[in-house]
Amino acid sequence: MLHCGRAIFLWALLSHMCESFNIEDSVESFNFIHPAGLASQAGENLSTSDEGRSPSFFGYNVKLDTSGSFMVGAPYFTDTTNTSDEKNSSSRIPTGNLFSCHLMGNTNCSSIRPPDLQPGNAFGQSLELSAEGDLVACSPTQKQMCTSVNYNPGYCYKTSDLGQAWNPDPRTINTSCPIFALDLMFLLDGSGSVGADNFERVKNWTKAVANNFNINDDSTRVGVVQYAHFYDSLPLNEQPYIVTEIALGEYNSTAAFGEAVDKIDLFSFTTYTAHALNKTVADFKSSNRFDSDSTAKVLILLTDGRSSDAEYLEQSAAYVRSLGITTFSVGVGRAVKKELRVVATGTDTDERVYYVSEFSGLNEIVNRLRNAILNFALEGSSSGDVSAIAYDLQLAQIGFSSHYSNKKSV
């Protein structure tokens, strides 16, 4: 009767894998298979263990081997052998696990996961067994810490001896941080309405945003233009109040850039935003990688009022964007939201538009702006759907697809 019960259980497990999370280990006359290391008693539901353990999703994925064993994934498994008392320590973050279980004999399953899993890997969420007996199991959420971004490419491991030795799968071993370059220009309103005290806040905000990007290795080059009044009698490159304060890439360290920003003095006067946008084009074109497809070009406008040359604003903003420069608008106080939208996208939406009522609130948008730049400009999306871009996805691509799906599995 016991062997019959196991056979019925195994058939049900293989036929309905999506329903086999956190299996009770004993119900009536059936002896249920459970992973080693999880405390269980007759009739106890593992998801409500007195240890306060979260569901392990044991049974999420199952593959049968010809040797009389089968592999069971538990992508939300937490390693409880670590006795750390820190409630929020990384040891309490699920790493996932993979178990080898046998059809006959002891119903405990043995862990066969690789030894170097990272917290949050969700190992065992995807696994596939080839006809030749090679097993590939994946960590689709494995992270790489890259410059300025959390990159989640996933990772796969391969074993030919059912977990005695694991090796990186050759098809994912070369996954590495995305290679990108960024030319970033700040266009700062230096009109009289800003005021000296608020301009100090603007400068601190500029440094805070720039600090989110790696200036030190030349992957990111940053520049600053301050603008106020425009004289019709002078060419754009000779305007005394539309000036490149920091040339693009002039400083290759965060400290040096910050010191240069601190030395900028407020102009005062009027607010010729359209002409200032045209000025930034020359700054972008000064970069020797302006025409490179691998270099993202981003302009951040910060202003607190109505432009003095509003009749030219739509044309100038469209010209800037036509060159492949992604524009972001940050408005403060009396900034005109319609003009912010014109500069950002030329549409009636608030895409790439940020607004705060006071200069003291600028720091509240630093992280949002940073994420938008990384997700939208560096990912190269044309949809503008920042929430759907891969840099900040909880789950990524590699590891979800079965490597051996085109072969006959055992």
TrEMBL record:
Pfam families: VWA (PF00092)
Domain VWFA: 183-369
Keywords: Signal
InterPro entries: ECM_Assembly_Org, VWF_A, vWFA_dom_sf
Signal peptide: 1-20
TM stretches of this protein: none
Protein name: VWFA domain-containing protein
Species name: Clavelina lepadiformis (Light-bulb sea squirt)
